[in-house]
């Protein structure tokens, strides 16, 4: 089968022939229709975190995917050959024609959108869901600041926060604000003309997608006892413990995130940074929200597999509104055998 791979860190992806995966009794084989590009993909491509992740070269990139079930392990329940699914590869490896996954990595695809659209959802939506529900413990009627609302995760967070009953304030450029009209945030602050910390105060929670000084400034608008979650940081020690990282790793991230923990403590609040985890149950709930028209889908551009590097470059350039998708194999061209 064909896969978009790198042989060395820092080089462009190439289409290479690799072995089709063999599934275990607990796995499914998915024929991939499409896969979306996320910032984590180009970061892995350039070698970020390679000592922590332990990936082996040559490496197939990609996290999000959608497709059709082609094989089902004997111990797998809830899926059958021909089912349309979408999901997240736990590590990397979705830019290919077939992928072997665990049932917890996938969910039945939303009925009301195409599989190409479905490929744009999993990683951004799971990241937003886990940040809002697990990190911020967001409650109905709370006021939430989302920094960088027009990106893939930011826009997903707006939709999901509304579904959770929160009131949303977000930062975006004028162009980003136009894109966000479909998401209906209660307030948009143009970060190019206005400093959010000058016009906001006492928000219940902040979901940060920007990092740096923006993350630092987020604590200044937080109410006493509020919570801040970010996707632009090493994980906090409580999360590292939750996922079973060793004592040494827990100590390292505790030191690395101590500045933000101290800022939260001054507000008698809580700081949370995390790595997105696969969760089929959460994905299925997200699919239901999509089918209920509570989660808008926007794809900025589609690319063929032959132009995979161009898709990655577009995301790397930044300021993408919504998602960029690589079409691996159009659904109408799917094989009828496996």
Automatic annotation (TrEMBL):
EC number in record: 1.-.-.-
Gene Ontology MF annotations: oxidoreductase activity
Enoyl reductase (ER) domain: residues covered: 10-326
Enzyme class (EC, first level): oxidoreductase
Keyword Oxidoreductase in annotation: yes
Annotated keywords: Oxidoreductase
Domain of life the protein comes from: Bacteria
Keyword rRNA processing recorded: no
Protein name as it appears in the record: NADP-dependent oxidoreductase
